[in-house]
Inverse folding.
């Protein structure tokens, strides 16, 4: 029986865990007692997260992984399975922001890249994770959507579409696996203090203005999103599947 603070004996794979929310999530799982494998871009960042996991007395594995390449996802999953036999929790967190601009100023190449990472990468992750879970009695998967997956945000139309896509895919995958003891949910954060947020908005909207427009009057820290991911992955959420959980200080409420 896992709880949001107890994942002892579990093996977790977080894809997109070299920085930001994924990094905080990998460390939170290690603090809760899990062995944690991580994928994502950036060798130095990945090694640093690997060291943080080990510092907490857990086993760690890092493989630089680009979710635009199916073979790299397959290799990451295969190496994790070789090491630990079973993966109890997958977190599909890899994401890219694209550019802050009106839709008509975006190129087809930019569209292709955002969709390749945020939506196709999510599809490929699920495609190779689900058979492992079905063969091993089930598990929990948490996908990364966004509050831009629940409502429209101007000037990030492609990102918004990709995160709505993640929400839809999460719900369909949850239905397909509901009788296989696999729960699949997603989190939908509002603005989170990470490199992605700064790259996306810094030249366009001041962060204090985003904080002010949020009902709770602030943006969130990555650890606040990580805690919700651990909750959804744990048996505390045993009757939840196909749900997109907003973690956005009230942003989609009104
Ligand atoms: N920061 C926010 O305000 C916010 C809000 C809602 C949702 N999100 C989502 O949270 C997730 C994490 O973003 P973050 O804010 O922590 O930013 P971040 O840039 O710190 O982290 C992004 C992670 O995804 C990985 N990644 C990017 N492209 C990849 C690729 N092609 N293949 C594999 N991994 C790749 C990066 O290596 C990194 O580990 C993303 O999916 C993002 O869309 C972020």
């Amino acid at each position: 029986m896992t709880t949001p603070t107890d994942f002892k004996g579990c093996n977790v794979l977080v894809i997109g865990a070299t920085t930001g929310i994924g990094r905080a999530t990998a460390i939170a799982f290690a603090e809760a007692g899990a062995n944690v494998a991580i994928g994502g871009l950036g060798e130095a960042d990945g090694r640093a997260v690997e060291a943080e996991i080990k510092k907490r007395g857990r086993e760690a594995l890092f493989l630089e992984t680009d979710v635009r390449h199916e073979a790299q996802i397959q290799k990451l999953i295969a190496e994790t399975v070789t090491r630990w036999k079973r993966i109890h929790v997958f977190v599909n967190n890899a994401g890219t922001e694209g550019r802050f601009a009106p839709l008509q100023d975006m190129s087809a190449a930019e569209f292709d890249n955002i969709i390749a990472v945020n939506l196709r990468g999510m599809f490929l992750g699920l495609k190779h994770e689900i058979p492992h879970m079905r063969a091993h009695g089930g598990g929990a998967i948490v996908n990364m959507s966004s509050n831009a997956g629940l409502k429209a945000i101007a000037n990030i139309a492609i990102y918004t579409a990709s995160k709505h896509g993640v929400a839809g895919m999460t719900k369909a995958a949850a239905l397909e696996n509901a009788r296989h003891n696999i729960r699949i949910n997603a989190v939908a954060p509002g603005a989170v203090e990470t490199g992605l947020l700064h790259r996306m908005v810094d030249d366009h909207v001041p962060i204090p203005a985003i904080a002010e427009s949020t009902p709770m009057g602030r943006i969130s820290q990555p650890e606040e999103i990580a805690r919700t991911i651990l909750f959804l992955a744990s048996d505390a959420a045993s009757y939840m599947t196909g749900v997109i959980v907003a973690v956005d200080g009230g942003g989609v409420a009104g």
In short: The domain at 11-247 is CATH 3.40.50.720 (Rossmann fold). The chain has one domain: 11-247. The two ends are 36 Å apart (CA to CA).
